[in-house]
Write a structure and sequence with these properties.
single chain; 64 residues; alpha+beta; 3-stranded antiparallel β-sheet; 3 helices; 3 strands; 33% helix; elongated
Length: 64
Amino acid sequence: MPKPKTHSGAAKRFKKTGTGKFKRGHAFKRHILTSKESKRKRHLDTDTLVDKADQKKVARMIPY
């Protein structure tokens, strides 16, 4: 049997935590930042966890 391949696009976007969950970054932090509040931009900088509904999809893309 061939080994499952890692989805290279997903590997750049998600990182596995020690407990097996996945970390992700926020969207809306790339451009047109002058119209956004400092607090909003600061909160978008922090990483968050992938939603429970999407965990299985991401786990399939990043098997290792």
